[in-house]
Write a structure and sequence with these properties.
- With 130 residues, this protein is mainly β.
- The protein has one domain.
- It is built from two helices and eight strands; from the N terminus they run βββββββαβα.
- It has a four-stranded antiparallel sheet with strand order 2-1-3-4, with no helix packed on it.
- The termini are far apart.
Length: 130
């Protein structure tokens, strides 16, 4: 069984904190109000980077997706932008992330990425080439 792994966005200092561990006795969860926790999905992208909730991915060069989670659903994706107007539904299979996904950023370090009007093929090419 995979041990839960987290990172956190520190909204006060505007930095990403990695390898988050918890001591629930010393720090009750309610004391973390300035942090946005993101759980690791257990998946990696094509470059071996770990995929967390809040990450924005380019999937198969056609779809920009946001990774989310709900208690009753687990991890799921929300489509931000599709470059193929003929595709109504996307078959995003998370187990294929190592073959088809590239992390472009996340919603905390790059909040403008959530806006679909900000996406062009040229902008994506620049991000992927970094």
């Amino acid at each position: 069984m995979m041990k839960p792994k987290f990172r956190a966005w520190d909204s006060l200092d505007e930095v990403m904190l990695t390898d988050i561990t918890f001591d629930y006795v010393k720090y009750p969860v309610s004391s973390f109000t300035e942090f946005e926790l993101m759980q690791y999905t257990g998946l990696k992208d094509m470059e071996g980077n770990e995929i967390y909730i809040g990450d924005i991915l380019l999937w198969s060069n056609d779809v920009i997706i946001l990774i989310k989670a709900k208690d009753e659903l687990g991890f799921y994706e929300e489509t931000i932008k599709s470059f193929d107007e003929n595709v109504v539904c996307h078959d995003i299979r998370f187990y294929r992330s190592e073959d088809e996904a590239i992390i472009l950023g996340n919603i905390f370090e790059n909040p403008r990425m959530k806006n679909k009007t900000n996406w062009t093929k040229t902008k994506i090419k620049k991000l992927v080439e970094k």
